[in-house]
Amino acid sequence: MSKKILILPGDGIGPEIVAEAVKVLACLRDDFGLAVETEEALVGGAAYDAEGHPLPEATLAAAQAADAVLLGAVGGPKWEPLDISVRPEKGLLGLRSGLGLFANLRPAILYPQLAAASALKPEVVAGLDILIVRELTGGIYFGRPRGVETLDSGERKGINTLVYTESEIERICRVAFDLAMKRGKRVCSVDKANVLECTELWREVATRVGADYPDVELSHMYVDNAAMQLVRAPKQFDVMVTTNMFGDILSDCAAMLTGSIGMLPSASLNADGQGMYEPIHGSAPDIAGKGLANPLATILSVAMMLRYSLNEPAQAERIEQAVAAVLDQGLRTADIAGEGMETVGTAQMGDAVVAALRLLRAEG
Ligand SMILES: NC(=O)C1=CN([C@@H]2O[C@H](COP(=O)(O)OP(=O)(O)OC[C@H]3O[C@@H](n4cnc5c(N)ncnc54)[C@H](O)[C@@H]3O)[C@@H](O)[C@H]2O)C=CC1
Ligand SMILES: CC(C)CC(=O)C(=O)O
Ligand SMILES: [Mg+2]
How far apart are CA 89 and CA 95, in angstroms? Predict the structure, then answer.
């Protein structure tokens, strides 16, 4: 039976990069027998404009009914004047919480072909392969109370709250330890336990969970130091596990070690293995509509979908091989091009990945 994939292009560069990922999916379906069918729906600013809400009920229902969701990005200056409760980003957060996608996996892998594009010296990043495991449905992005209140004095007060229960911390830590068992057997739990009680609890629970994984070496690091260490000596990390906001920030930082934020895919998983897949970047309003965006993070997100939700690891590997092949050919969007290198646009890059896939088939 065909697996159902819901496609949510979103805003800004979202539709441009998703179109390339859909070409790749279509190639796997037509040339490699992948049994998938796709359906498209609105989310984010596009949904707000059409229906007055960034996450229409029909979109959430379609996402819940799908085997997996592929999302581009949401948001942009057009919707910034809106109240936060109806901004495009709220649609994304609603999807994450509505689907229970508490585990966000953000691999930061340096393709050797892009060593020169990394923000760090080649000898510091060669072979880089970090997995950031970010808690995605709790923490300060969801905590209550929240909002802006007006005090008796007339001054306004902004409030957001960092909240985690023990069970929320435990389940994300277990995901991190289980994944570490299949990788380098090291987990670094990132917190701010020196000042935030909530993350003092995080550290305690991470330590308790770690006791169930005697083969995994657990370390703890404050988030400020972790940001610095990522830039100083990133290869000390294998799996990093952290809160929603810290993981959001650290993964953008890690992206630059791989050459560009346009290279980092992600998987957001719930307890049933259902997932949403998206690049870690946003809607990039500065380059939207220009055909300049790098579609590889979105294409690599399809590979993660095949691996984590559709149980098609061989198809996932094909995509990864095809991406490596186009990089070998020297194809570069502007964000990963070295000085003086020729660049290609979004659609050319997507077409090249499809051509590389077809070549793999021809080569048997
Ligand atoms: N998952 C999502 O839908 C996310 C949405 N956003 C939203 O996106 C909008 C823009 O946010 P920013 O802070 O500017 O972050 P951004 O990630 O959209 O862009 C940051 C910088 O990276 C570049 N960039 C991003 N993706 C790229 C790609 N595929 N290829 C080449 N360059 C790329 C952009 O051109 C920009 O210079 C905001 O409305 C924000 O709320 C931000 C992050 C994630
Ligand atoms: C709406 C934001 C929380 C999205 C974001 O920056 C992210 O998930 O990386
Ligand atoms: Mg982010």
Answer: 10
ipTM: 0.99
**Residue to substitute in 70, 80, 261, 343 for testing ligand 1 pocket (most ligand atoms within 8 angstroms of CB):** 261
* Residues belonging to the active site: 141, 192, 224, 248, 252
Judge contact between 24 and 353, C-beta under 8 A.
yes
Same domain, 143 and 247: yes
Q: What is the pLDDT of residue 338?
A: 86
Please state the domain count of the chain.
Answer: 2
State whether the beta carbon of 135 lies less than 6 angstroms from ligand 2.
no
Tokens of 135: 């808690």
The CA distance from 253 to 256, in Å, is 6
Does residue 244 have its Cβ closer than 6 Å to ligand 1?
no
Predicted TM-score (pTM) of the model is 0.98
- How far apart are alpha carbons 347 and 351 in whole angstroms? 6
Q: What is the domain extent for residue 319? A: 1-109+264-364
Judge whether residue 216 has pLDDT over 90.
yes
Using the 3D structure, point to which of 258, 277, 296 is the last residue of a domain.
258
CB of 286 sitting under 6 A from ligand 1? yes
For residues 3 and 53, membership in a common domain is answered with: yes
CA of 135 to the centre of ligand 1 (A): 20
| Contact residues for 107 (Cβ-Cβ < 8 A; gap 6+) | 129, 130, 131, 132, 264, 265, 304
Please state the separation of Cα 213 from the chain's center in Å.
26
For residues 218 and 169, membership in a common domain is answered with: yes
Neighbours of ion ligand 3 (CB under 5 A): 248
